[in-house]
Specification:
- By secondary structure, the protein is an all-alpha fold.
- The chain contains nine helices and no strands.
- Helix 5 packs antiparallel against helix 6 and helix 6 runs antiparallel to helix 7.
- The protein is elongated.
- The N terminus and C terminus are likely disordered.
Amino acid sequence: MAKPKLSLPSFFFLLFLLLTLVTTPSQSFVPNHPKPAPTSFIVSSCRATRYPALCVHCLAAYGRAIQRSDHHLAQAALIVSLARARSAASFMSKLSRARRIKLRELRAMRDCVENMGDTVDRLADSVRELGRSRYVGRDFAWHMSNVETWVSAALTDENTCTDGFGGRVMDGGVKVAVRGRVVDVARVTSNALALVNRYASRHSPATVAEQP
């Protein structure tokens, strides 16, 4: 069975977000330029997440592209999570090559780089799969199950990364730097999963059939 292709609207939506993220620092919590005010749709939707303030902050700039689409909202959340995961993976890869890093830190860092690499792969697959879910009819539940499974696995990879720096023996600048990056990615991914679950529950064939 051939895989359904993304429609032109979804293609341009993804392209818009990706181009925007390329020029937007993924770790910028306090941007130097004013950000657009979040739409009421984004604010209300983000209440379903564990970190609603962070959710609104991450998605406010994409309000015009998201409009009132649950699908575009979940897609944007995943793409933001993917961008931050890639940034964190790159940061940790560079940090692992630092000359003064301790051996135990190096081992934990290498494991963490591998975990974050898996996170990036799973999130990238999720973005593609979510793009297909809108146009598959009866296969909607199967595609959404894939997305939910992969995003959950990405969240596990992120938590495993921080576990490698547990204990006082690992205390220090490297641990602080790594935890700061990974915790941020984990929170954004948690929010993305919540919005994916929300989209799946609101737009499953059974739910749509029950609507008047």
